[in-house]
Amino acid sequence: MTSNTDSMRTQTWVLTTAILGSGLVFIEGTVVNLALPALQADLHAASTDLQWVVNAYLLMLGSFMLIGGSLGDRFGMRRVFITGSLVFAFGAAGCAFAPSLPLLVAARVLQGAGGALLVPACLALISLHYSVKERGRAIGIWAGASALTTAVGPLLGGALVDGWGWHSVFLLMVPLAALAAALAAWKVPVDPPPAHARDLDYPGAALLAAALGLCIYAFTVRGSAWLPAACALLAGAGFLWREHRAKPPMLSLGLFRSWPFSGTNLMTLMLYGALSGGLYFLPFDLIQVQGYTALQAGAAFLPFVLIMGFGSSLAGDLIRRFDPRRVLTLGPLLTAGGFLLLGLPGTQADYLTGFLPGIIVMGVGMTVSVTPLTTVVMEALSPEHAGIASGVNNTAARLAGVLAVAGMTALAVTLFSPAVAHALEGAGVPDGLSGQLQGGAAQLAELTAPPGTSPDLAQSVHAAVGSAYVYTFRRIMQLSALMAALAGAVAWFSLAQHPTRRARR
Length: 505
Fold this sequence. Notes:
19 helices, mainly alpha, 505 residues, Growth Hormone, Chain: A
């Protein structure tokens, strides 16, 4: 009885530590997005430059997540979790005290490297310390509690931005990351040694990091991207060749013969791309067009995270009661409906009738999707591959985010330029001022009339810019809806003849 009680107590601490560790990454995404408008105004950054505050972090996550998972399988999840938390804390401190955009981006690179070690270990720790029978519900509790933890992020982040500036948003992460490391060192047991300890495939790891990093860079760089894209293809081909010959490989290509594993990772790429890309633009609409404060914009996300927080633990049982194929098709389709609703409000929209319905529907859709998706991914492979399974899935999610933000930012500028030119002409703005403003189209909704412009003319410019951004925002929401719907289609076809082990029981 005592042994069982001790085991349950250990599981509780493992789950708490995993929730806090993953919560750092989730909070980081929501809080930093809210700080971007203030950061843009303070550093006078164009949207194409500002995206590197997000993309530098996601680039490191996407490039090194698989390596982080492999290191966990080799050296122990607990040790890698602690290391990742501390590196994350140092990176956050560097962001908080960065005096310029280049130094801020450099600190975000360090923060992303810490996250690449930290994130795969969170789910892997749950898989290691919970039995197959208990794992789905534990993952549901992890997803729900992480969402509730994240709910504090937008509210606290908005208050920090309004009261102390964007620097304080990063400073918030330092004590949280230190606490995660302390809990892991104090309460999480040392991992049992792997059955077949193996060295990390360092050439494979280097080729993979180069391929992913160059791919992400090709999508985010301004100007000619053919050279980094070509180098990414070469590095990717070299990685596949290396993994085919390595004994043992860092990432066994045979793992992708599992249709549930391959399909749900492709689904993750599309669904998280839609979510990351769409939600990147929403705070700009709320703050720069609708006139919300950062705190109000943070509160606007609260229904989404509360729905996920209270619903995710229940969603963990969905694939035990219903066909995973149907569950993982329904969730993305609901999410797509939420994005379509978010694209409806105009420049003076009421929150309750304009934005809240879309946020609620999107929250329900993601709640139905996330926990079952994560459970299918983690159960598709054997427990000794828990680290690499978590690494692949998190790599897909982070890669989706950075590619979506980069691609949608470029698309937004392309759509906004003619839209603002048309809106300025319709508002009667003189040609000289209109041409000057069109030259700054990369600022999107931050575009304002220059000092000295008459109040009436400045108001006309503001209305025209807002109208053009709403047009652009609607197209981005429609693209996000399409990506989410495609994620549902992938689930429908990839899980048709290959139900998970759990579903067959």
